[in-house]
Design a protein that fits this description.
11 helices, alpha/beta
Length: about 375
């Protein structure tokens, strides 16, 4: 951290602490805090899980009486609102006797959004905002997007060959990538709130859609399992499908959400709900579940991030409707070829290059024998509204 000012050094530490909560704090943001007295760190903490103490409270507890006259570095504006599992943090900061508070970014949550900072200043504290703001926004990109748009941040993930194929003509796709890449994909599953597939994937592959280890013994990769979302406009999901199972390590029926339409059998809906399986009936669009309505509803349910792991047709639909925020492609060093092999993006073929979806902030990483290519969709996110 040489070359950084003291404020930036302490904030960089707070950001590293915040990142330790990745995959465990949702729907809350990741937050880190550091208390500094006389250029000495006397307390630090990070938000470990949703419903647990916030980062600044843990840091103040660690500092104790040393917080009087000290400075607090925190990656997100302290909360000041009621109606959640933990009390507001601003009163505790005021009572602690802090002299100065350095905030990386304002909270986009409308219930806070500048109010926490204003209350601290009115209590006589010196408050500065914006130290390492960009890094703080990147850390909580999914949370910020959810707060600002009302819908989850959407990852499109696929494993493909070097020529863009996700399955052979027969539908065979296990395994295109190696163990290391599959292990990384499961790690990512444990960090998002939900996995989404179409019913075609359920009928063809009968997947579990859980986060679990690959190529090693042990239990699940983390304490959180993603919500499993199945888009099924006519409710064709078999009642014995593994995604609905109660097998050890696969979660409970309530961890799966079947999203269907009025075209589905009401008797089947009632039968699934009687088993404890959540079924959501939404409007149809072109004979399928409206994806925009689905994402809007998931956002209302507190789902801040979704990873789409469907086939080429679902991939094409979410890209065409501009619902994807980031693409994660695991690329294997092999060529499949052929007109009948399944491509990563189905749908109609664009007639002009100007119809291509642009990506930005591209990153490439070697994972075992494969490559992970990741990029952000280069269009501004828009608010998703239902009709």
């Amino acid at each position: 951290m040489t070359g950084l000012g003291f404020d930036q050094q302490y904030m960089a530490l707070a950001l590293r602490l915040a990142a330790k909560g990745r995959g465990r704090t949702s729907p809350n943001p990741m937050v880190g805090a550091v208390v500094v007295a006389g250029n000495r760190i006397v307390g630090q903490g990070y938000h470990r899980r949703a419903g647990g103490p916030h980062a600044e409270i843990l840091a103040l507890r660690a500092a104790g009486r040393r917080s009087r006259g000290a400075a607090l570095y925190i990656t997100l504006e302290p909360c000041c609102h009621e109606g959640k599992r933990t009390p507001p943090c601003v009163p505790a900061l005021i009572e602690s006797g802090l002299r100065r508070v350095v905030v990386a970014m304002q909270d986009p949550n409308p219930s806070v959004s500048g109010r926490g900072i204003s209350l601290l200043r009115r209590a006589g504290m010196r408050v500065s905002v914006g130290c390492l703001r960009r890094e703080a926004e990147q850390l909580n990109e999914t949370y910020c997007h959810w707060m600002r748009t009302g819908r989850p941040y959407v990852f499109l993930k696929a494993a493909m060959t070097l020529d863009g194929k996700i399955a052979a003509a027969s539908g065979e796709s296990r395994w295109i990538t190696g163990v290391e890449a599959r292990r990384d994909a499961h790690r990512m599953r444990s960090q998002v709130d939900a996995i989404m597939v179409g019913v075609g994937t359920i009928l063809k592959d009968d997947p579990l859609l859980t986060a679990r280890p690959v190529g090693r013994a042990g239990g699940a990769t983390g304490p959180r399992q993603p919500l499993r979302v199945v888009l099924d406009s006519r409710l064709r999901t078999p009642e014995q499908a593994r995604v609905l199972s109660l097998e050890k390590g696969t979660g409970s029926p309530s961890s799966t959400l079947i999203v269907t339409t009025e075209m589905a059998s009401k008797r089947r809906i009632e039968r699934l709900r009687a088993r404890g399986i959540s079924v959501l009936v939404l409007p149809a669009r072109n004979g399928r579940v409206s994806l925009s309505a689905c994402l809007h509803r998931l956002g209302q349910l507190g789902v801040s991030s979704v990873m789409i792991e469907g086939g080429g047709e679902l991939n094409a639909t979410v890209l065409r409707e501009k619902l994807v925020d980031r693409v994660r492609l695991y690329v294997a060093p092999r060529l499949l070829g052929g007109r009948e092999s399944k491509g990563v993006i189905g749908g109609y073929s664009p007639r002009r290059l100007t119809e291509a979806v642009p990506l930005t902030d591209m990153q490439t990483k070697r994972i075992g024998r494969d490559l992970l290519i990741e990029g952000r969709i280069a269009t501004k996110p828009r608010l998703i509204r239902t009709k």
